[in-house]
Amino acid sequence: MSIPGITVDFDVDNPDLTGDSETQNEIFIQLFNSGDGELFDLLYRDDAISNFSGSPLTGKERTEFFKEFLAPKPFLVAEITHAYVAGDVALIGVKFSVDGTDADGKPTRIEGNCTDVLRRGEDGRWLMAIDRPVAGTLLPQ
């Protein structure tokens, strides 16, 4: 299935972030920037937690947040700072910025660092288990 604006190989019936961190990042960015929250949520395990909203969300609450948040098409730029894989678990560090508009149409920017944990399922597909973006940084510059 071809998805407009998506140039990476992505199967909506069998979503997979792959074991390669650069490819993971590109898939994540392109699906985020598509503005389709339901499509973007396919990158997450059913029991995955995301605190992109500022609160830890899972399941239907997470999906609904992504649908609402991504609808106005905010634009994500993300750069991997580190990636570690141990068996079926991957820890990915990302420096990110998201540009968008607020309810009044004024430009907004969120930037910071993110710690992602991906898990490889029994079927071999890598999906997001924990997505923890933090605006600003807790690390010394």
From TrEMBL:
Residues 28-126 form the SnoaL-like domain. This is SnoaL-like domain-containing protein. SUPFAM superfamilies: NTF2-like. It comes from the Bacteria. It comes from Streptomyces gulbargensis. Pfam families: SnoaL_2.
